Amino acid sequence: MKKYIKCFTVLIIVVLLNLIFMGGAYGTEAEAESKSDVKVVKDKSFFGEMVNKVKGYYTIDEETEEKHVPFVYYVNEAGLMVGDFYYNTDLFDNQTKLISASMYSPTKETFTSFTNVKDYPLSDKCSLGGDLKIIKYNEIKNSALGNDSSDEEIPESTLDVIDSFKDLSPTSQQRVEDALIATLDDSDDIDPKESLETDKEEKVYSSLLNEAQTNGDKMDGYQLYHGWNNSITIDLTYKINETNDIVTAYTYEELESQVTDYKSDTISLAWENEEIDRKNNPRQGHKLITKVEKSLDWLGHDSENSWDYTKYTLDARKYLPVFEESTLAFRFRTQSTTGEEVKDQERTFLNMLSGDSNPEVTTYAPFFDMSLLGDLNTMKGYNYYRFYDNNSVLYQTELRFPLDNILPRLQGNIFAEAGRVSSDFDQELFTEDMHYSGGFGVRYFFNQDVVVRTDVGFSDEGTKMRMNIGQTF
C-alpha cells in the first residue's frame, strides 16, 4: 500500500508543478490558443482555470513544431511511470527533427530516456542522425540462450551459491568444478574428498551439489538483472535517389548488472529501398532493408568483452490499402550472427548444475546484440530480450485503421507476430517451433513527423504493455 501512496503523491506533485509552471516552461495560455484549432473556454474559478490550462496544455495543432507533453504510463517491468515527451521538428531552423521521451517509476526507481535526432542536413544528399538510450532498470529478465529457454526464474539460493563459487581462487574453482562434474557424472576417477583441499572448497562443493540435485531442472531459466543499459548511435545517410539510401552507423552499447557487465561497439552499413506514399503512415508500397553490422575494438573491448562478430539482417515490409482508410502491413525479417565463439561462463556453469553432459555455452556477441526477439518492436507479448541465438526469423502483420471519430489523428492497430531463434540457419528456422504473440494498440500523430504508440501484447507467457516512438515497422 505504501508504494501506491508514494506513486499517487508523486503524480499529484507532477501535475500541480506542470500546471503552475506551464506558462513559463511551455508557453503562455495565449500562445497555446494561437497554436490550437480548439477554442479554450475561459473560466474564472480555480477549477476552471486548471481545466483551461490542461486543455491548452494537451491541445495539439498539427502545425506545431515544438511541444512538451507530460504523461503517465504503465510498464510491466517498472510499474506506473511518470514522464515527459518532447519533440521539435525544426531544430536549428533547418528541418532537423528531435524526439525525446523520459520516464521515471517512483515505485521501482526505474528511469528510462530515449532521444532521437534525424535529418540534420550536411549537404543536398547527406544527413546526420543519432539515438541516445539511458536506462536504469531493476527487473530485466535475462533468459537462457535458445528457442526453448524456460520462463521460470533461477532460484535465488542457486545464484547465492554461484556467487560463493566465484569468490574462490581460480585454482580452487577448478578443483570444485572437477569434483562436481565427477559426482554428477557418477565418475570413479575423482574422489571429491581427496581433490578438495580446504573447508571452504568442501562447503561450496556441498552447496552446489545440493542445488544441482534439488533445482537442476530450473537452470535454463532467467536471472533478474538490475543496473544500467546505455547506448549511443551516430548515423550518416546518403540519398542515392528518391527511393534508395545508403546508411552507415556507429553504435556503442553497455549493460552493467550485478551479474556481469557487457559492452560492445559496432559499425554497420545498410541499403534501404523505400517506395511508399506516406513517410510515417504508409498505405501502400514497400520497404526493403539489407544490413551488415561488424563489431569493433574501439570502446567495447576489455578483458571481459573481447568480441569479434558480424550480424546480417534482411528486413522486408509491404503495405496494402484495405477498406476506406485502413492499411494491412506485413513484415518479414531474418538475422544471422557469426564470428568468434566466446564462452559464456555463467550459463556454462548453470548447464553443468543441470546435469548436462555437454554444458559449455558459447556466443558470438553480447545477448542484446545477437539475433534477438523480444523488444519494443518485436514479439511484444513477451519479456524484453526473451529469445536470442545465432539466427532468428520474424513474421509480423498489422491492421491499421483510423479512429478520427474518437480523436483526430488517432489510429487503431491489431497485430499478430510469429518468430523463433535457432543456433542453425536452415529450413527449420523458418517453419518449425514458432512462438506467437498478438494484441492491439493505438498511435497518435502529433504531425506527419511525430508518432507515438502504445501496444498491449499477449502470449502464452502473459500480457505486456509497450510504448514507443513511431510505427512498429
UniProtKB/TrEMBL annotation:
The keyword DNA repair does not apply. It is found in: Membrane. It comes from the Bacteria. GO terms for cellular component: outer membrane. InterPro entries: Bac_surfAg_D15. Residues 228-472 form the Bacterial surface antigen (D15) domain. Keywords: Membrane. Pfam families: Omp85 (PF01103). Gene3D superfamilies: membrane protein fhac: a member of the omp85/tpsb transporter family (2.40.160.50). The keyword Membrane applies. This is Surface antigen (D15). It comes from Acetohalobium arabaticum (strain ATCC 49924 / DSM 5501 / Z-7288).
